[in-house]
Amino acid sequence: MIRCVVDDLAFVEADAVLRPANDRLEPVTPGAVRLDRQAGSAFAAECRSAVALDAGSAIITRGGELAAGFVLHVILQDQDSAASPDLVRRALAAAWRRASEWGLSALASAPIGAGPGLLDLDDAAVLMTETLLGAPEPRPSLTIVLEREPDRELVDAAVRRVLT
C-alpha cells in the first residue's frame, strides 16, 4: 500500500502526484517548484487560471509533461491560514477523497508538510500514513518519494511503525 523510494517525483509512474500549493496553486516547497518546471508551460497556464481555494482542500489538474497524468494539489495555505499540522491533515484527507472520486489507484508524493517551521520527515510520514489509512475505500497505493537514502530509511521506518 505504501512504499518509499529515492527518485525524482517528476518521473515516477503514477496516476497522480501530490503537490503542496497555496490557494492560488503556487508551489510552496522547492520540490514543487522543480516539479512545475518539469511539468511544462501548459501545466503552468492551467495553474495560473485557478480561482482562490481554501487551505485544507485539494484539487486535480492535468499533469502536463510529468510521468503522472494528473497532479493532486494539496492546498496548505491561503491568505487567512498558514500551514499547520491540522491543516496538512485536512488537506491530505481532501486529497485522498479526490483520488477516490477520480478513481486514481496509484499516487506518488514527496512528504507533504515536511519543511522548515512545520513538520519533520518522521511526523510528515506518520501524518500521510494515518490519513491514508482513514481514506475511503478503495484506497490508492502511495509511493513516497525522497531525494536521499537516509531520508528514505527514516520515512520507511515511520510508515512501518504506523502500519504495524
Q: Which descriptors apply to this entry?
A:
single chain; 164 residues; alpha/beta; globular
Q: Average pLDDT value?
A: 94
Number of strands: 6
- Order of SSEs: EEHHEEHEHEH
Rg, alpha carbons:
14 Å
| Quaternary structure classification | single chain
So how many helices? 5
Major sheet summary line:
6 strands, mixed
Instruction: Kindly report the spatial arrangement of strands forming the biggest sheet.
Output: 1-6-5-2-4-3
Distance between the termini: 13 Å
The SS-based structural class is: alpha/beta
User: Rough shape?
Assistant: globular
Structure commentary:
By secondary structure, the protein is α/β, with parallel strands linked by helices. 39% of the residues lie in helices and 21% in strands. It has five helices and six strands; from the N terminus they run ββααββαβαβα. The chain has helices spanning 30-39, 41-48, 85-102, 121-133, 149-163, and strands at residues 2-6, 16-22, 58-62, 70-77, 106-109, 141-146. A six-stranded mixed beta sheet has the order 1-6-5-2-4-3, with helices on both faces. The longest helix is centred in the middle third of the chain and has 18 residues, at 85-102. The chain starts with a strand and ends with a helix. The model has no long low-confidence stretch (mean pLDDT 94).
